[in-house]
Each structure stands twice: as structure tokens, then as C-alpha cells.
Design brief:
Number of helices: 4
Number of domains: 1
Structural class: alpha+beta
Distance between the termini: 10 Å
Largest sheet: 4 strands, mixed
CATH class: Alpha Beta
Order of helices and strands: EHEHEEHH
Number of strands: 4
Length: about 90
């Protein structure tokens, strides 16, 4: 079944991060296209991620259509509830 992605998905990640890799793997497995921005060398990445989602100071940070959802745990939870695919793909 061909699905059309309706949502823009952005990930802010850092190198050597197992949760970032797990998030990328999950998105890839689900066929979700995303833009990955490496913030490994950002001068204050904790402040940067917290500016997008108050209190979130770790990587990855996933943003769907401009709405920060959190990190890998929140991404996985959305998927398990069936809400990730609903938010990302067109329904036929």
C-alpha cells in the first residue's frame, strides 16, 4: 500500500547517541522521511533543545510539523499507540 507523507519531520541528533540511532531506525522502518540536523557541535545544545521544548535537554529531539514531541521514548510511545503514523501519513 502506497502511503503519502503529509507531515514534515525534523530530528535534532548528536553523534554516537544510541537513542538518536534508535529513533532514526524506527523512522526508517516506518518509511517516514525526516531531516536530521546534527547538533553535536552546537555551542549549547541543551539550551537549544530546551528552547524548542522546555525542559528537554537531551538528544534526539523530534519535531513533527513544527510541534516538538520529545525524544526516542516519546516517538516510540506515539508509534505504539498508532498515533505516529496518523500524524505523519495521509489517510486514504
Amino acid at each position: 500500500m502506497q502511503r503519502t507523507q503529509k507531515a514534515n519531520v525534523q530530528m535534532y541528533s548528536i553523534q554516537w547517541c544510541p537513542y538518536c540511532e534508535a529513533a532514526k531506525r524506527l523512522l526508517d522502518e516506518l518509511g517516514i522521511e525526516f531531516e536530521d540536523t546534527d547538533i553535536s557541535t552546537h555551542p549549547d545544545r541543551r539550551k537549544f533543545t530546551s528552547s524548542l521544548l522546555p525542559g528537554h535537554t537531551t538528544a534526539p529531539l523530534i519535531v513533527i510539523d513544527g510541534e516538538p514531541i520529545g525524544g526516542y521514548a516519546e516517538l516510540q510511545a506515539l508509534h505504539e499507540r498508532g498515533e505516529l503514523e496518523e500524524r505523519v501519513f495521509e489517510t486514504a
